[in-house]
Amino acid sequence: MTDQTTEEPTRRDFIYIVAGGAAAIGGAMTIWPFIHQMNPAADTLALGSIRKDISSLGVGQEITVMFRGGPVFIRRRTEAEIAEARAVELDRLPDDLARNENLPESASAADANRVLNPEFLIVKGNCTHLGCVPVGNGAGDYDGWFCPCHGSHYDASARIRRGPAPENLPVPAYIFENEGAVVKLGASSDEVATAGWSVA
Questions:
Q1: Rounded Cα–Cα distance for residues 50 and 187 (Å)
Q2: How far apart are CA 128 and CA 145, in angstroms?
Q3: What is the mean pLDDT of residues 138-154?
Q4: From the candidates 36, 129, 150, 153, which is the catalytic residue?
Q5: Contact 159, 171 (CB under 8 A)
Q6: Taking the model in full, what pTM does it have?
Q7: Interior angle at CA 181, CA 176 and CA 182, nearest 5
């Protein structure tokens, strides 16, 4: 037979519990500054994303913005350019992947997988051959971009069509804000997930 005692908590037990809780909170408050200092600084976070007002960009116009040390092309495509980009047979493309940071790596190079809004094509602006900056505004043999340094031709969806460049111009992570008037480059994965990106 075992003795079971059902003593009520004493005042001493209460003091132990309070002292232990205070020590735990004090310890957490002591180490928090050390943990918090490992987070990126505010100026670093500010460079992680930028917003560009594209409301005044006309149809058929293109601008280049600098983002994370490199150019990004933002082109407002014409209906003809969209139709031309969507009519391309995918088996004729040297690179059959979308190269889109907003979609899974296996997404195909279909034009629909390279744009969130077909009217706006947004791609990083360094040639995938040696990092030169191609000429845009319908340049080259495929009405897209042309790298005069080594002869790479990109189409109206910025997919490599001919030349030494091995891959399509990559699409950065982005979303639209303010009903499409502003593009945010460097969007977070949560923002991308809710922006309407889907594989075609």
A1: 9
A2: 12
A3: 94
A4: 150
A5: no
A6: 0.77
A7: 50
150 counts as catalytic? yes
Q: Locate tokens 């031709």: which residue? A: 153
Per residue in 49-98, pLDDT (tens digit) is: 999 999 999 999 999 999 999 999 999 999 999 999 999 999 999 999 99
Tokens representing 187 are 């969007």
User: Which residue is it, tokens 């001493």?
Assistant: 12
Q: What is the DSSP string of the chain?
A: ------PPP-HHHHHHHHHHHHHHHHHHHHHHHHHHTTSPPHHHHHHH-EEEE-TTPPTT-EEEEEETTEEEEEEE--HHHHHHHHHS-GGG-S--B--BTTS-TT-B--GGGS-SBTTEEEEE-S-TTT----EEEEETTTEEEEETTTTEEEETT--EEESS--SPPPBPPEEEETTTTEEEES--HHHHHTTT----
> Per the structure block, which two tokens stand in for 110?
């279909």
Q: Which residue has the tokens 């195909």?
A: 108
Residue with tokens 């005692």: 5
